[in-house]
Amino acid sequence: MTDRKMPKLLFPMMMAILVILLTVWGFYALSTGDPLWFQPVPERTYAPERITIHYYGESTMLESGDEAFRELSAALNQSLNDFRGRVSIGLSEVTLQDYRQKEYVLEVQFSDDVGATVGLNMALNHFLIPVDGRHSGNGYLFVGNNEEWLASALIIAAPQPLFTTLENLGYIPKN
Question: Taking the domains of the chain in order of start, what are their residue ranges?
Answer without folding.
Answer: 7-39, 50-168
